[in-house]
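Now for a typical sample entry:
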Amino acid sequence: MSPAGASPELPRSAWLLELGVEPYEGILDLQRQLAQSRQRDEIGDGLILLEHAPVITLGRRAEERHILASSEVLKKEGISVYRVERGGDVTYHGPGQIVGYPILRLADYGLGVSDYMHLLEEIIVRVLADLGLAGTRRERTIGVWLGDNKVAAFGARVQKGVTYHGFAFNVNPNMRHYDLIIPCGITDGGVTSLQSELGEAADLVYTRQLVRHWFSELFRVRLEPVSTGELQVTVETTATR
């Protein structure tokens, strides 16, 4: 198994905001605020890790027909719907899924958008390897797969060189909710989770630990925990200078 922490020689630091199960709308607003603050150099790079209350999101080119359930069914299941500015099609977030939102200035890492997306994929591939599973990619399709089933979805937005939105990794989510959509517009495969593959609930805390570790290693950053309040204070302090 991989070590719990990042290598001590990592050359730069980045903040880490870890949250529990959060409603989507508030975190969407927070991402936008933090991305704008990063564009203005009011904050450094960072990563948000959390779970979401049940929600379906549609990317810029998503087709609404890929939501199979009626509004009445969605309301009964407690699932909200948002159309957002990320790439990708229709996807689902819910408790038991690790969602990551990197706020990064890509030029500082020498990365283009395609390289950045493949690096996000590599994080999940390495986490799966640590758990004894062989994650794979598909040509011309962003995602990480276990066999014919997708276990992690990716959809990013890069604005003025700064990233937001990110990835969703199925650990122990309610897989029944995926029956309500055509996830990512996939017609030649399904969706899976660690729980489905392992035959038992996966350790969400440990899996988050692995995600943090490989994010640190692949982006070569030390993750330093902060609170939402500390980030807000930093933004406000820098803005008034």
About this structure: Residues 12-230 form a domain with the BirA Bifunctional Protein; domain 2 fold (CATH 3.30.930.10). The mean pLDDT is 92.
